Prior knowledge:
Layout: E1 3-6, E2 51-52, H1 59-64, E3 71-76, E4 79-80, E5 84-86, E6 93-94, H2 96-108, E7 111-116, H3 122-127, E8 133-134, H4 142-145, E9 148-150, E10 155-164, E11 181-185, H5 189-197, E12 202-206, H6 209-217, E13 223-227, H7 228-237, E14 241-242, E15 250-254, E16 257-259, H8 263-279, H9 281-289, H10 291-294, E17 304-305
Parallel strand pairs: 1-7, 2-17, 3-7, 3-8, 11-12, 11-13
Antiparallel strand pairs: 4-5, 5-6, 8-16, 9-16, 10-13, 10-14, 10-15
Amino acid sequence: xxxxxxxxxxxxxxxxxxxxxxxxxxxxxxxxxxxxxxxxxxxxxxxxxxxxxxxxxxxxxxxxxxxxxxxxxxxxxxxxxxxxxxxxxxxxxxxxxxxxxxxxxxxxxxxxxxxxxxxxxxxxxxxxxxxxxxxxxxxxxxxxxxxxxxxxxxxxxxxxxxxxxxxxxxxxxxxxxxxxxxxxxxxxxxxxxxxxxxxxxxxxxxxxxxxxxxxxxxxxxxxxxxxxxxxxxxxxxxxxxxxxxxxxxxxxxxxxxxxxxxxxxxxxxxxxxxxxxxxxxxxxxxxxxxxxxxxxxxxxxxxxxxx
Length: 307
């Protein structure tokens, strides 16, 4: 499978060791869908945001929904260390999210084209037909289901807070952030979540977590909030930051996102994810990219269907 990388540009900071940067993080029984896999389906009432469409092995129907014949175009991050980042040793895009994009393209039997995008561009680019899929630590929620279609959840992240290493022992929870400047990427759930949890936080937005890290290093913000996957990557690279021991702020279930009309493509992706959970590929990808940083064992999320 050939991978073509487009626009893999990102900001550099003084703390980016080895030249890396980062970005911005229910078990119903599967049911047979009423509509044909080749037809667009109107999402049902969102009682459970993690419910996706029942899986299907109909590769032909999925291929018909690709923007370009013989190619899967996927929007990814280029600077989220361990999730989707440009490896400075060879210039290749790698990471946990990238590995899932590779598996979907391989199953479809097509080339994979990776496009580095901002979090704020994910929904717009799907809606405008510029990409087929997003694999960019995207949280599944009911509001987004009105705009895009999601695969079953492929990773359960949680939102936490990163502070300076000299402040880590003093952090006792969100109340510690009252009156402090906390950075999160624009158009992410992290911004709304932190304001809801601690209204006295001074929310500061940046294009991505690289921008937040730059602001932190320039003393423009006091903390950064985001998914534990992203924050762990930041802390692993910058010795002056730390993710203190803390309770999660929110659950952030990740799903692969598609144009809301591409139901056949979603169904096929779900069949691939099911196979990856069963044959050990999910665990292998987790062990390679996230376990060394998060330092905990993990099992793949059980899929939820019924949409």
